[in-house]
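Problem statement: downstream parser choked on a complex file, so we are re-checking the raw output for the guanosine-5'-diphosphate-alpha-D-mannose run. The parser issue turned out to be on our end (a line-ending mismatch), but while we're here, posting the original submission so the record is complete.
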Amino acid sequence: MLLSIVVPTFNEAPNIMELVRRVTDVAGRMARDGVETEIIFVDDSRDATPDVIRGVAVNAPIPITLIHRDVHTGGLGGAVVEGIRAAASDVCVVMDGDLQHPPETIPDLVDRYRRGGVDLVVASRYVDNGSATGLADRSRVLVSKSSTALTKSMFPIRLRDVSDPMTGFFLVDRRAIDIDTLAPRGFKILLEMLARKSMRVAEVPFDFADRHAGASKASMRQGLHFLVQLAALRFGKMSLFAVIGGLGAIANVLIVWALTHLGMDYIAAAIIAAELTIVANFLLIERFVFQDMKNDASNVWSRFAKSFTFNNAELLIRIPIVALMVGSGHITAVVATAITLAIAFFVRFLFHSLVVYAP
Ligand code: GDD
Ligand code: MN
């Protein structure tokens, strides 16, 4: 059997030698059981990491491949997907490059896989005998535990057998995943795989160790990515679009309120508020809703022009329609506004998904 070990790296120069040493030790032992091993580094570094990798690859007893990316599409998750695509074997272990994932756990993953019946083996911190000494401080433990609980509650069935959906250490048989449907962003690539396709899963415990050297790249920004990813996976684009639209409506009201309080004329305040929220709305959906649907043939300004024109036209058309409905005498202004807003929401969503972000 052939095993590909995929390691995403971002500025991990001081960790590479030790990682390769420990992985090749383990590979030597696994070779006696008929498992051949390769390592694929998918690197986005700006430090000496690629040079160090090329250096150790020369004399290494197992094949080491370096994919150095100049465009860091999808960050950590994108790197993992690229590594899995490039792997010589269908069976891939994904692990971090900072030795928080002990290479000595790899044989446990492989053994469990070879016993059969599973597509995915998760190395878990939260199953019996697993632990997380490397979660440096209390706040990190709290963040990890609460985001795990939140995630599990949102995918109660898919994640029933997974105690640690946020781990970055696992073995996957890539024949069981639909690699083209993965839209990885940031750190939570395993969650993405689990949420998109049902798989047969097993877990083995491991100890999430301290970093060998260097500092974590986790950040508030990654945390935000995670929440957006969760919403996108769970409710799809339309609900994310709705959430952003709802926030826009609230902002709109607040701006009108503030400007009229400052003494501005109601009409002027309403126009300013509407245009500001239209622009903000575009920036948010561009970034968070349709980020994976940007057509190479269009550019941001042409998308903005379409979106801006549509929203203004919608605004202009909706007001006389509301007036007509109210004028007919059967409907109050509030009901008429609500109905037109609901219809406008669907039309706006369709327009953006089919025209602005044409597939
Ligand atoms: N190629 C690439 N591109 N690699 C990256 C990037 C990136 O943008 N960002 C981080 N990495 C690499 C790091 O170099 C490291 O090898 C690995 O991904 C994990 O990054 P860390 O910075 O060490 O993250 P962490 O230890 O805070 O998070 C780990 O534990 C979490 C659970 O607590 C990761 O395994 C997460 O996936 C996991 O959820
Ligand atoms: Mn780490």
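For whoever reads this later: The chain has two domains: 2-234, 236-355.
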